[in-house]
Design a protein that fits this description.
The protein is of the alpha+beta class. It has one helix and five strands, in the order E-E-E-E-E-H.
């Protein structure tokens, strides 16, 4: 919580049941479970109980999602290389409509 009496710059990070507040300037408060911690500039405070990560890692990409991501990146790189070596002459067919603003 910041009361607005002075400019305050702070960062909040939450991960696996723990919340950490770091204050760069001003004064912030961390309220958790009935307790209030005042965090002055240059300090930090932590609240919560860490939840250890189990065997199921949901933070990373699964094999299928990683494969799709790599294929998309490969396709983008192939398109850029094709355009670079063919004088930027990409023709997808169809017509082009140019809209000009009027005064």
């Amino acid at each position: 919580m910041v009361n607005g009496n002075q400019a305050t710059s702070f960062t909040v990070a939450a991960s696996r049941g723990r919340t950490t507040v770091t204050t760069q300037s001003g004064l912030a408060e961390l309220r958790a479970g009935g307790s209030v911690k005042q965090i002055a500039a240059g300090s930090s405070a932590t609240a919560g109980t860490p939840n250890p990560q189990g065997d199921d890692d949901d933070d990373g990409l699964s094999g299928g999602a990683l494969a799709v991501l790599l294929l998309a990146i490969g396709g983008a790189v192939a398109g850029v290389l094709y355009a670079a070596f063919h004088n930027n002459d990409l023709n997808f067919g169809g017509s082009v409509t140019v809209v000009s603003p009027t005064k």
